[in-house]
Amino acid sequence: MGGGTPRGGILNDLRVLPQEGRTTGPWWFGLNQVQELPEQLLEGRFRFLIDWLIGYQASGPEHFSEEARALYAAAYDTPDAIRAGNGWYQTFGQDIVDAEHYPILTMPLLGLGGVHFPFVPALLEGKVADATYVELKGAGHYLAEERPDELARELTAFFG
Predict the structure, then answer these.
(1) pLDDT of residue 17
(2) What is the pLDDT of residue 11?
(3) 158 and 110 Cβ atoms separated by less than 8 Å
(4) Quick one: CA dihedral 108, 114, 117, 123, positive or negative?
(5) Which pairs from 26-32 meet CB under 8 Å and 24+ separation?
(6) pLDDT value at position 54?
(7) Which Gene3D superfamilies match (predicted)?
(8) How far is CA 69 from the centre of its chain?
(9) What b/e sequence results for 16-28 when a residue is b if at least 16 CB atoms lie within 10 Å of its CB, and e otherwise?
(10) HEC states along the chain?
(11) CA 95, 112, 94: angle at the middle one, nearest 5?
(12) How many CB atoms neighbour CB 43 within 10 A?
């Protein structure tokens, strides 16, 4: 019946398995692009994903109270909310095509980031004429929860 555990070869070439010495990539990009399945998997269970994302993307779990986690989970726990949140991921292909035809933004733009800050200027390169970039050092993905005072200061300075 069974042949044994696959090792190397085609499975590694297809990137089906995590590569030795490398962290697992953002698997949720793929999941969120699938229509209907995420709603079926996550309805009533979104708290599991919230907790995992906080553990994976935040600079520390202490920035998220039990109340905040429960509120985020409740906001995303229905099929409609999951579908709405995933719509952003599901339009990536068209967004990439459309972005090629957008004019360069001429209004001032503030780009903020924590651990993923290097992606901010890279994603906006050639798309904005007047950009200010600020890295909130030590922050993870959730700037408002992890660095609320720094974020408020930067937004106030930018918007005056």
Answers:
(1) 57
(2) 45
(3) yes
(4) negative
(5) 28/53, 29/89, 29/92, 32/85, 32/86, 32/88, 32/89, 32/90
(6) 96
(7) alpha/beta hydrolase
(8) 17
(9) eeeeeeeeeeeee
(10) CCCCCCCCHHHHHCCCCCCCCCCCCCHHHHHHHCCCHHHHHHCCCHHHHHHHHHHHHCCCHHHCCHHHHHHHHHHHCCHHHHHHHHHHHHCHHHHHHHHCCCCCECCCEEEEECCCCCHHHHHHCCCECCEEEEECCCCCCCHHHHCHHHHHHHHHHHHC
(11) 5
(12) 15
Q: Which residues contact 26 (CB under 8 A, 6 or more apart)?
A: none
Contact between 154 and 112 (Cβ < 8 Å): yes
Query: What per-residue confidence (pLDDT) applies to 6?
Result: 46
Helix pair 66-76, 79-90: axis angle to 10 deg = 80
- Give the whole-angstrom CA distance, residue 103 versus residue 106: 9
- Rounded mean pLDDT for each run of 10 residues along the chain, 160 residues in total: 46 56 75 95 97 95 97 98 95 90 96 92 92 96 97 97
What is the spatial distance between Cα 18 and Cα 11, in angstroms, rounded to a whole number? 10
